[in-house]
Amino acid sequence: MLTFLALTSVALLGIVPEQSQAIVIYTGWERHALVGSDVRLSCSFFSWRWTSEDVSFSWTYRPDGSRDTISIFHYTRGVPYLDNKGPFKDRLEFVGNPGRRDGSILIKNLDLSDNGTFTCDAKNPPDIVGRPSSVRLLVFENVPIQAGVITGAIIGVVLGLLVLIVVIYYLMRFLVARRVFSLSVRSVSGLWPAALCQSGFCQGLELKPEPIPGMDTCVAKLA
Amino acid sequence: MLLILLGVLILHIIILILLIVSTAASAWSVADGKGTDLWYSCITSNGGYHCKPSSNEDWIQAVQALMILSVLFCFFSLIAFLYQLFRLVKGGRFFFTAIFQILASVFVMCGAIIYTVMSPDDRAHTNFGYAYVLAWVAFPLCLISGLIYIVLRKKE
């Protein structure tokens, strides 16, 4: 019984990784860069096996509008081989770490003719079945403006100013009205009828009634 | 009095329609079978009518923004006119309406000037289309309308 179970588990362990033993390669989707700058094209992979000594990376390049693919980089058995005859002569640099499954390259001093698709293919023997992954490089003269950014900015600023002006206008009107009211109250410290003073009318306005001796009225003074 | 009000209102609505048509129509620059405007450039080739978004340069975005702002301000001035018609004190002037209308005319002028100066110089093949002409026609009409609102007073 136990041997039967052990055999089935070993068989399962043998079968399941067989099906998922494809290597999965990751690069970016698109890279944008300016003329004259450097760009780093990253490539890494996922594999069920340990990273072997014979791990290999290779990069190929297909210019925009062309159907030819040329090989520009190959790393195998611990030695990187850079392009020394093609369009990237003296401009390539290997900045990856194969031990950590990183096969990135650095292209220096970009030009408009470098627009195209770069494909990374990695192999981790015995895990060699996989699909290469491509990254598209777009080189610009100057940073392109997105459609509608400036439009939205101008409209937003003008409408914002409009709202601000209307708010300030109504605020000023409100404040001036209050100041006019408080000014007129301070300048009145005259004669108020006694009945009004006693009913507490003056208390709300920070005035206190002072009865004038010998008369029926009182004087409202500032409290 | 009612006639004057009606005339001024109709003028305002005509200006608003002119501005909307000018902003939206695809005919600022025309060549043979090809119309360009602020948003798309469309070609009538034998395959049909193909449109692609126009260039993203900063000046065309500025013209887009100014035309949209002029439509908005003309609309705000219409609403302000209707509001002030019923709420203004007797003898008062339609200041808000006038200010918005004059701002709208200034924006149309700026937009049309920027387009005139910066549009690609291909005078041999392309001419200015009717939407461009409408923008230039809307500008003085808008200005005159704004001035009328400054002079107009609310009577009994």
TrEMBL record, chain A:
It holds the Pfam family V-set. Residues 1-22 form the signal peptide. The keyword Membrane applies. GO terms for biological process: myelination. It is a single-pass type I membrane protein. Residues 17-136 form the Ig-like domain. GO terms for cellular component: myelin sheath; plasma membrane. It is found in: Membrane. The chain crosses the membrane at residues 145-171. PROSITE patterns: IG_LIKE. Its main location: membrane. InterPro entries: Ig-like_dom, Ig-like_dom_sf, Ig-like_fold, Ig_sub, Ig_V-set, Myelin_P0-rel. Keywords: Disulfide bond, Glycoprotein, Immunoglobulin domain, Membrane, Signal, Transmembrane, Transmembrane helix. The keyword Disulfide bond applies. Gene3D superfamilies: Immunoglobulins. Belongs to the myelin P0 protein family. This is Myelin protein zero. It comes from Amphilophus citrinellus (Midas cichlid). The lineage of its organism: Eukaryota, Metazoa, Chordata, Craniata, Vertebrata.
UniProtKB/TrEMBL annotation, chain B:
The chain crosses the membrane at residues 62-83, 95-118, 130-152. Pfam families: PMP22_Claudin (PF00822). InterPro entries: PMP-22/EMP/MP20-like, PMP22/EMP/MP20/Claudin, PMP22_EMP_MP20. It is a multi-pass membrane protein. Residues 1-27 form the signal peptide. One of its GO terms (cellular component) is plasma membrane. It is found in: Membrane. Keywords: Membrane, Signal, Transmembrane, Transmembrane helix. PANTHER family: EPITHELIAL MEMBRANE PROTEIN-RELATED, PERIPHERAL MYELIN PROTEIN 22. Belongs to the PMP-22/EMP/MP20 family. This is Peripheral myelin protein 22a.
